[in-house]
Amino acid sequence: MGHIRVIRLLGCASLLAAAETACGPSVQTIYEGNVRFEHCYRLDLDTSKAPSHRHACWRNWLQVYTYAQPRDRIEYARRRVRSLEVGDPDRPVLNVGRSRAAPRSWYISGPAPVNAHAPPPATAPAQAGAVDAGALPPAEQCTAGCRAVWQECLASCGSGDGGATPGCGRCEPDYLACMRRCLE
Asked: Under a CB-based contact definition with an 8 Å cutoff, are residues 135 and 141 in contact?
């Protein structure tokens, strides 16, 4: 009876351990990685810190804190480790000055709507070589001509309702030849 309890207890413990690791990164893990990254970055900006100290910080971050971190941070840390290993004295530049942003005119491209049910105004000007919405494809114009010739041929055969009369089999071959020319 005691062995069954031990087996059940071990089974429950293994299920608990599996559930604990199967959920992905915890908030605490991500937070520690972020804080540690910012710490190393601050050391990079501090002129009084020795390069060996900065190198050790970045190397430690790469070894311990990269789990669930974005790729750009990992690549940045790798570049910093490489540059510190070769003795590059340049530090990252932090731009804290106010830069004048380019004016954004994209959100003021048209007049404000007057009617809530009206379609929105055009956001892009019409191009010079724009195609007319009512224009037909090139083969469509040709096939319309073939259809008109076929109907005239049928009318000349003597059928007023558009149906073929016996003995008027010349319309179909001419029509098919015309359609082949349209689609070539």
From this structure: no
